[in-house]
Amino acid sequence: MLKRKHLWWDELSKDEILEDVKNCDVAILPIGAIEQHGPHCPCGSDAYNAKGLAEKVAERTGAMLLPLLQYGSHPYHHWYMPGTIPISYETHINLLCDIVKGAAVAGYKKFFILSAHGQVAATLVAMNKLGLEGHFVLTCHWYDFLRDSQNILETPMTHADEAETSMALSLYPQYIDMSKAVDDGGESLINPDFQIKPGMTPKPGQMYHFEGTFARPEYKELKSGVIGFPSKATKEKGDKLVETAVDLMSQVIEDVIERFPAGVQPPVK
Ligand SMILES: [Zn+2]
Question: Which UniProt key words apply to this protein (predicted)?
């Protein structure tokens, strides 16, 4: 349960942080991306999605919110797309490790890296490096909590699509212009049956989207920058996505708190 007066680390004094960590030593690091999201959504969409979800999870669980990391790392095919500012995997991994190590100095012992952008390649490496040093870190991508869209969506989760636009309409409608939303997409270089889309429950023989060079460069492939069906997005769908993801993310944190109460370091090392 939230006991401190502000949600975010950067809004609190050192003494307020040191007091709050006695109540709850779980810290959430929300990470997004600065990436073009078509003509109808802002380039900060992934960062705003991570921020909005993290705030609701913190309100429910009492977890500390580490300052939002707006920049993210990107697969090769996102680079050179106007509007997108990728950071390299190496930079991203180092940032994640440094942030967790810095927050641990104040007594935080359980870390939850909450990503609303496909950057598993960086978060998994960071998590393993931190694990070697004894840090307890869970890395969660929002689509882990929305498998098969929980019967809320009509189409699979992709990019600037029904899912992301619905969530945007729920969390930051002031930045969305639905009159500009167009349905679009690229073509996979392999049979899409062998690929798992984000948020899709895997079937035998399917590879995750980060396991191969499945795509042509987006700057050559995509006209609008959209992959999917933003025309199907609604605020009501977004509200349900937010509610579902926040509930499941909070359950994971509540389970960790129950197993390892404040002050107890999970025995990673
Ligand atoms: Zn996105």
Answer: Hydrolase, Metal-binding, Zinc
List, in sequence order, every residue forming a beta bridge with 80; answer none if it has no partner: none
Strands 110-115 and 136-141: what pairing? parallel
For β-strands 26-31 and 64-65, DSSP reports them as parallel
User: Domain for residue 2, yes or no?
Assistant: no
CA–centroid distance, 22 to ligand 1, in Å, is 35
d(CA 131, CA 128): 5
Per-residue pLDDT tens digits for 94-118: 999 999 999 999 999 999 999 999 9
| Residue 229 Cα to ligand 1 middle (Å) | 13
The CATH number covering residue 101 comes to: 3.40.50.10310
Rounded (5°) CA angle 224-227-232: 100
Cα-to-centroid distance, 256 and ligand 1 (Å): 28
Average pLDDT for 228-238? 97
Higher pLDDT, 163 or 208: 163
Provide the domain limits for residue 18: 9-258
From residue 261, give the alpha-carbon distance in Å to each of 63, 78, 97, 187, 256.
12, 41, 23, 48, 8
183: Cα within 13 Å, side-chain hemisphere: 8
Distance 131 CA to ligand 1 centre (A): 28
Counting the structural domains of the chain, the total is 1
For residue 102, the CA-to-ligand 1 centroid distance in Å is: 28
For residue 268, how far is its CA from the centre of ligand 1 (angstroms)?
A: 32
Q: Is 23 domain-assigned?
A: yes
Which pLDDT does position 203 carry in this prediction? 87
Distance 116 CA to ligand 1 centre (A): 7
